[in-house]
Structures are given as C-alpha cells and as structure tokens.
Amino acid sequence: MANIRPFCMPKWGIEMTEGTIAEWMVKEGDAFTKGQVLCLIETAKITNEVEAEYDAVLKRLLTPASDEAHPVGALLGVFADADTTDAEVDEFIAGFKPAETSVAAKGGGGSAPAPAPAAAPAAAPARTPTKIVTNRAISPEALKLAEAEGVDIEPIAGSGRNGRITYQDVVQALRPERAVSYKGSAQLVEDTAEAFASPLARRIAAQHGIALGTIKGTGARGRISKADVLALVKPTTAAAPVFGAAFELVANQPTVQPFDKVRKVVAKRLTEAKQTIPHFYLRVSAAVDELVALRKTANLVLGTKASINDYIVKAVALALVKHPDVNVQVHGDSVHSFPHADVAIAVASPKGLVTPIVRQADRMHIAQIAATTRALIDKAQAGKLGYEDMDGGTFSVSNLGMFGIENFDAIINPPQGAILAVGGVNRVAVEADNGDIAFESRIQLTMSVDHRAIDGALGAQFLQTLKGLLEAPEGLFA
Questions:
Q1: Bridge partner residues of 422 (DSSP)
Q2: For the residues 78-89, what does the mean pLDDT come to?
C-alpha cells in the first residue's frame, strides 16, 4: 500500500481535550515540504502553527476551517505520496481508528481518565440518563456526561470559547445547592469595643456619628465592613477643586488618516522584511573625539557643511569596498555582490520614511557626499524623489542620534543585506592610560544583518574596519 499517514488533532498539554482549525495554509491536493506551516489550530489558551514533519501531499482535507471544535485525535486530513490513488485514501479512511486520547478514555494506553462524575457529593440524587438534542455549543465529552447523568444543560452558562459548555461546566452542574444552616442572629454590642466591626469601619462610624449597633454587617460571620458604614453616610456637596473648575471628561474621538501610497509601500516592505529576513544584530561603540575635531577643521578648509552622518556614510562606503561580501543584495536564492558602495540614507519625509541613495559613495570625497546628501534630503522633504533616487542600494544608514536616541535596531531594507543604526554622540567616563578618569565622546552603532547572506564573523570584521575609520578619521581622506 502507498505511504499514507493520518493528520489528527494534536494534543498540546495535559489539559487540552479539543481544538479548532482556524485556517488551512495548504489546499487539498497541494504538495508541501518539511517545516512548511500546514494550518493554524486554536485551543482555549493558544493559537499555534502546525509545521510539516516530512514532505508529502495533502490528499484529503476532511475538516475545513471553522469555529467547530474537534476532539484530540480526530482525523483532520490524510497525507500521502503524490501517486497515491483516491481509492487507497478512501480505504485508509474507512479503516482508520483514532487513538483514545480524550478525557473520557478508559483503561490503559496512557490516556488520562475522565474526571469521575462521582465528584459530586454522595448525597446528590440519582439521575436518569437521557438523550439531549440541542443547538447550543457543547464539547463532545460534556454532552456525553450530561446525557449519562440526565443534566438539563439549558440553565448552564458555558465558560468556554463563545459560551461553549465545557466538561467542567457539567460537573459543576452536578453539584447540589449548598445547604445554608442558620445558627441565630449575631449579638452586636452597640457602640462598644465588642461590636463586630473592622477597625476602618469603626473609625468611619466614629467620624460620622453612626452607632455601630444599628448596622447589620454584610461581611463574614456578620462583620461590619467599611462599605456597610459608608452606606449610611450622608453625601455632602463636593468642594470645588483647589485648582480651577471641576474636571470633566470631553470627547476623545480619533482622527482617521488612511495610509497614502508611499506609506502603504513602506509598511508592506518593512513587514515583509521583518517576517522573511532572519535578522541578527551586532553592536559596537566608537570614540569620535578625533572625528568631531577633524570635521570642524575640514569644513573650514573645504568650505562645506558636512555633517557627522556624511563622514559615517563615507566610512561605511570604504568599509564596504574592503568587505565586498557585506556590500550585497539578496535576490531569492542568490547573492549579488557589487564593486562600489551605493549607500542608502534613511530620511523622514512628509510622506513617511524614504531611503534615497548616495551612489558610489566610496568614490566621492566628503564635500561631494555632503552636497549629494543635502540635495536628496531637500527632494525628500519636498516630496520630489524619483524612482531613480531610491532604486537599488547595497547598504543603508539610519541615524536617529540628532533626536537624542542612544541606540536602536533598524529593519533591513530589502534586497540589501544589512543596515546600520546610528545613535547619538555621548560623553562617557573612561580610564586613561595613566589610570585616571577621563571623558571621551562615543557613538553607538548597531548593524542589522541578513543571516542568509552574511555570517556573524563577516559582519564583525566589517564593523571592526568601520570603527577603525571613525576613530582614525584621517583614513577617510586617503
């Protein structure tokens, strides 16, 4: 016979007795591979993805997605080889016997026995088994118990999902009403220390001149509580607040702004990137006192206004050329390496986050990078970036340091293989060579890396080179 295997409702945890197929991710007749998500199964506690344990074909889908719950062990589908015939599948289904895994299973096989209906007190009256026909949602085991014990399920308030009656609800319905035995009225001594009242209730009663002897306590064993005393306190007119008029709630209606086309594209790309790219993160800090001093001098000499970010873009570009395996794009199952660094810079525009590209930044000097970056930022803020300004790129730099952010993790901009998140420059205490305490300026760098194309050691070597260029910035002019 062909290699045919059943797909049954799994059992996750001792307490699970049933589950619901929330969604099928494959259709009948579809082939799937090991590790592929087959369906989503909901229980009372979780929604879990079921992954394939081997390669096969879903030859028969017996239980479509719905709100109907199915007991653990129920046959949900049939897996088989592609050449398996329908007749063989029909024969398999006809002869299939589910394992006894429900809470009502008796005997051996390691199944947990059902909670005994005898959990109800022995004094409970005998009940006559009856057949129950109902449209109410009730688990199979709960219905079986209710029929066996003759329980009227109509007054039962189901505690399960969407009001579903559970096995525990029926067991609880079997318990008789608790008999109340009155021992006589409590003897409370009026306005004396012997009055059975809480300390707080006694203090409130004294403040408002209320006699404790006139109060019937609602607490345990007739104890007078704070609520009992407050119920007799006459309300007083609220005094005006010390600061201004009394506080009143006002309407708090949201302003609804649908995504525009740019934000829709950005949201879709970032969502896909986070879901499909296996991110990992590398962090390093670099001393930038020399870079800050060099920038001030170079800007005067070159007559430019290059920012720290422009120098970082230049350093990133040089490091990418030295480590071409980081200067990549990932397309499906292939990695594209580039000889020059096209560095994308993240810019907040009126239409959302955009990433225009400084092309071949490794071949530019600082003044050219500063001019190109300024032009791209101006176009972004004016909403005039074109497709050619943002198409491609081999690496991205996202800088939030100007907002006081010390460090953060950025999402990779596909098809690029990595992105650098740049934090602000902070003065930190360090140990000097002579053992004294000194202060230096440091910047935090976090690189998000696509593990499909770039390994940890390769990313670390790139950051080591980048750190060296920022701490010895003369190399940026070589």
A1: 399, 445
A2: 91
Distance of CA 214 to the CA centre of its chain: 56
| Kind of pairing between the strands at 69-71 and 75-80 | unpaired
SS3 268: helix
Catalytic residue among 208, 331, 336, 451: 451
Could you give the CA distance from residue 390 to residue 369 in angstroms, rounded to a whole number?
16
Q: Is residue 451 annotated as a catalytic residue, yes or no?
A: yes
Query: How far is residue 407's CA from residue 53's CA, in Å, rounded to a whole number?
Result: 40
pLDDT digits (tens, 9 = 90+) for 265-304: 677 878 888 889 999 999 999 999 999 999 999 988 888 8
Q: Tell me the C-alpha to C-alpha distance, in Å, between residue 103 and each of 41, 144, 168, 245.
A: 19, 11, 11, 62
CA distance 282 to 355: 22
Neighbours of 103 (CB within 10 A): 21
- In what side-by-side order are the strands of the sheet with 437-450? 279-287, 437-450, 418-431, 395-399, 343-345, 357-358
Q: Are 325 and 339 in contact (CB under 8 A)?
A: no
Rounded-to-integer distance, Cα 180 and Cα 87, Å: 65
